[in-house]
Amino acid sequence: MPIRKMEKMPVKRGLANKFGKSFFSLKSTMSKALQSSHTSSSNENESQTIDSPSSTSQSESKTFEYQLSNNSSLKQLQNDVDILKELLEQKELTIIELRKNSYEERLQFDHEKLELNQKIEQLQHQNIQLQKQLNMQ
Length: 137
Known about the structure:
Keywords: Coiled coil. It contains four helices and no strands.
């Protein structure tokens, strides 16, 4: 008879498979439920049992209101982001325009400087010519 190796069998997750929740989650939910039932009176427990469909609808309406507020918050944030993007684009265009103007002004300045330097050289040359004429007289 051949010897077989023992294979590990997959661990069954009993409660998680049956209820879709882990044991810890189920345990904490149960303990919270038990604590709330111990703190309230038996009359309140009966009214809670009777009102459970309305409490479910209240929690659903709260969830819906929460989702609506989240949606409005998201819409407001998206609006703010769009406004900021538009402002950023305007500022970038302003920067581009300022750079262009600065470059053009720099070119104009360099041109004027060159003309002035040429004029200075011309005047210096004329001054030398005039001094020579004075010395010859």
